[in-house]
Amino acid sequence: MELSESVMKGLQILADSNVIDLKSYAIFTEVAFNSLVSPRSESALGHPELKHIDQSTLKHCHTAATTFILEGVKQNADKSTISSCLEDLGFQTERVDIFYTSFQKNKQNVESLLSSIDICPPHITDAAWRLEYCIKNSHVHKVNQPSYLISLNTESGGCSSKIKFNCTMEQLQDLVGKMKDAAKSVERATQS
């Protein structure tokens, strides 16, 4: 598994028994998994058994652990992959076993969480626009500039919504140019 330097450092801190003892590590591991699968679970920062650990260290370790968990589930990592990765970061066998037990117990719930995330951005179903001419602004300065009020109707997963924004002529021309470039790129991608 490829992990960022920050995640590796956080996991190395988590592996250090001088920073987090074995009992606290077991509690921390359960809390990290619960924070992913249960939206109302207690955070690692608020857990009474973890109060003796520096809060910034705890936060760094929590971020690293949850990133590692998500990456492991995403890649459908097996025990040997997880074990070798954690052992390379300095985890003792007992800590690896605790982590993997929690991983196995919560893997299906984390998979469900990841599969529920919609990866498709909303697509535009309709567009409307209105030209507005601004004579003065709120500071009573003369502006004398046209602007466009754009309303885009979008749909994603059966839900529709509206996106509204205001732009100048230059911004609108830039938007149209980028949309044309995107359409050409999609067309080229589908032809090859």
Automatic annotation (TrEMBL):
CDD domains: Commd3. One of its GO terms (biological process) is sodium ion transport. Pfam families: COMM_domain (PF07258), COMM_HN (PF21672). InterPro entries: COMM (IPR017920), COMMD3 (IPR037355). It comes from the Eukaryota. Residues 123-190 form the COMM domain. Belongs to the COMM domain-containing protein 3 family. This is COMM domain-containing protein 3. The gene is commd3.
